[in-house]
Amino acid sequence: xxxxxxxxxxxxxxxTPLLHAYLSRKNPRTRPTIEQLDKLESFLTSETExxxxxxxxxxLKQKLPxxxxxxxxxxxxxxHKNLDTARFWxxxxxxxxxxxxxIEARFEAIRSEKxxxxxxxxxxxxxxxxxxxxxxxxxxxxxxxxxxxxxxxGEGTPGDTASTATRKRPASTSEPSATPQKIPKKxxxxxxxxxxxxxxxxxxxxxxxxxxxxxxxxRCIVTNMETPQVCHIIPFGLLNGEEALWPLLDAMQAWFxxxxxxKAQRILCEEDDDNIIDEPANMVCLNPHLHxxxxxxxxxxxxxxxxxxEPVGDDGVATDLKTANQSNxxxxxxxxxAEKQPAERFRWCQEMTFHWLRKTGFHMTDRADFNCNPRxxxxxxxxxxxGATRLEPWELVVDGQLIKVYADREADLPSYDLLQLQxxxxxxxxxxxxxxxxLYESDDEDxxxxxx
Length: 452
Hints:
Elements: H1 2-23, H2 34-45, H3 60-72, H4 86-94, H5 97-111, H6 116-150, H7 206-215, E1 229-232, H8 242-251, H9 253-256, H10 258-269, E2 283-286, H11 288-296, E3 299-303, E4 308-311, H12 336-340, E5 346-356, H13 374-377, E6 401-407, H14 416-431
């Protein structure tokens, strides 16, 4: 705390005279304009919360030595081709510290086992299979994300969620043809017709989208702007890809852990009430520009731990909001129950941090240097890329901005598990060929089964 106080005093001593001199300028060509003063006032009066000293790659001081140690645990020469590449390297950087420690501990445990050679080869094969499947999982996700974003841009309807999972949709046999067709007569030798496949679920549930829109008070959760679009965390198009998605997730057990993968399969691939792809738990509200950049992989919303309960005051607003977020009306969402009865004692909250993503020049198939700190390999920032402006005049969305979404039920919050899965995918995407999702095309497996 003493160091932070000294740092604050240092900046005050530096900027106080600069600010005074700036405001005292008399030259018409250099004195501040009304526009500049408005911008300055916005910065000086902003109460937007930020988490200091955060980075979407996590704790680099802990992760870098762990990743080095994992790579040093691989036998040399390494006969598993994917474990020397940026596929494996980027996947490791996408993991949390505890997952890296689990992988390191697994190598340590194998060394003490009696049949360590066989056990080691089995584990290496599992890690290699995950590295091989990771680009396919990324490709599936990015293809569907881009498809689902395009149809919503330019449509100003609040909460617009027009269906976009109709690409390559098979023609309906019930639709009349413009040209009369001859109906062939049946013969005894006619080949039996195959059972028609299940029609893809192409229609989004507007009622669920409306619930997400109401939860976020019909505002973008990042900029607080009105007339947002309801966006899916995990692309809606994957609702039709359970059979292709399941084995890709299954291969990730060696990285993400068995429990996390089984849960992801349950909420993304099951055809029952457990599936939440088209539920508010898989939705957030963003303005049209952020929606497009979300699909392009320009930024991430990284969860800050699982959801938690927060006390609610007598007025029905979480007590934390009365200070930090009182200028943000999206958090004061009321429900029918709240209108009829006194506010409940607690409200559920999911915290996220906003991060602009940086890309490197690495490709998935490049041989990786596991001693490399990714931040040293980031390409220069493209200053032509527009920032996202908040509702407050001239205030830009910056790294580390804290975002809180509230709901009366935990199940109605943006899913922590889906946010974490997307954060893992986006991290790897930013570290390897983030400029072009086509670079993720499968090199040894046909993905046509996922086309619709």
